[in-house]
Amino acid sequence: MEQLILALPMAIVVIGAFVLMLLSKSTRFNLDKLNLLAVLFLAIAFIMQYFTLGNHTIAFLFPDVFGESFILDDFSTIFDMMFTGGAILTLLVNNDYIKSRQYYSTEYFTLILFSVFGMIMLSHAHELVTAFIALEIASLSIYALAGYHKNNKVSSEAMMKYMVLGSMSSAFFMLGTALIYGVVGSTSLTEIALYTSSHTIDEMTLLIVGASFIMVTIMFKIGAVPFHSWVVDVYHGAPYPVTMFMASTFKIAIFAIALRLYLVNFAPINSFWTEMLQVITILTLLGGSWLAISQKLVKRMLAGSSIVHSGYLLIALSSIGLGSELAAPAIMFYLLAYFLSAVGSFGILSFISVHSKKQMSYEDFKGFAERRPYMALMMSIFMFSLAGFPSTIGFLGKFYIFSAAIESGQILLAGLGIMTAFISVYYYFKLIAMMYFYPSQTPQKKLTINVSTVLIAVMALLVIWGGIGTSLIPFIPGADGFIDIAKQAMSSLK
Description:
Layout: H1 2-23, H2 31-52, H3 63-66, H4 74-93, H5 95-100, H6 107-124, H7 128-146, H8 153-184, H9 189-197, H10 205-222, H11 231-237, H12 240-265, H13 270-293, H14 298-320, H15 327-352, H16 368-371, H17 373-387, H18 393-407, H19 411-436, H20 451-468, H21 481-491
Helix pairs in contact: 1-2, 1-6, 2-4, 4-6, 4-12, 4-15, 4-21, 6-7, 6-12, 7-8, 7-12, 8-10, 8-11, 10-12, 11-14, 12-14, 12-15, 13-14, 13-19, 14-15, 14-18, 14-19, 15-17, 15-18, 15-20, 15-21, 17-19, 17-20, 18-19, 18-20
């Protein structure tokens, strides 16, 4: 019975996907109703995930049926809550945008739920083939979502580019799995961990090659340089809701499996990867900064800057191999910080685009503070957070990342991270300057209050609250409490 209860959140999401698929052919259910139904399934799953947090007394899900394929721990549950929460925000914040575009159909909600189901599977995966299947379930749904505007040439090109390159990266995952199986004789992460802990580096050459192939897939999925060629074009071509979902929620899913592999199963060979990760981190920070600076469209700038944020996360990932205890919790905190800021900023772009079909450039934001003062304020908060400005959650996230780097002795890498954070001030504050220091060509818009604007405002407040760090109000925890939760989750890893 306990196993069934713990499996219910995952089951509810996939059942919801099939229910929405069946209802999509019914004329009684329009986009609004299906959106609310999808949110309902996700909300039920989120609530159940919350109540199972800290209550895991069994290690594996239905071991008689699945063996050790699915693990149950606080680590995966925290990530599950991020996935379902991210999907809920994606659906609610973009509701008006979806209704304003005729190309959206009822299948959109099914694809979102299948993608979330794949992400949840990925966070619980304790066996490489299971992880591959979960990754493909999530990826295939996002491939379809990226090209959802099928009559738009840019969107179709984005889908093809992402699907072809993504399929190639998935092939590396399977090749790596095959090599590891050839060495260990199993794809179970438990068996791999036992093997790596009982053999020397010289005895694991083929396993290291296989693990490196798997890491290539992970680097591609997070858009690290030199596996980043798809990021800007795909983010640009995909509809705003999909770009929001990819930039925030899907990136979190990839780091879920990366952390599990890096912290436990491949931990004995982390030292082999440290220098390679450091090189990739440097290239990612510098390459992403160059891409972000060179963009004229705000959406493409945010896409380029997402590469830089992957670089910050890689700083902490490389710190794990050098013994930093803060690095893994710092990654989880930074993922939350970036999630709030990215969803908020893309949400504002989506809100603006409801009545405009053009891609928003820097020039289009001239005088935005006069037209929509409250939206301009919230966009400024998100830009401050992404740049790591003090008093925002983005600052605290970067502080933890750089502290982990210094703790592990990576002083130069921390310095480079700080330098790229200063560089980011240019392209983030450029948008703020356009909003506040240029006159508006159009009159002030009437304040619109709906679900989208309320949620964006809540996220802006959370970004500020996250920057405070400690609790200011009794009985309400500060954002730094999430670090303690993350540390507890890390201790549950097996």
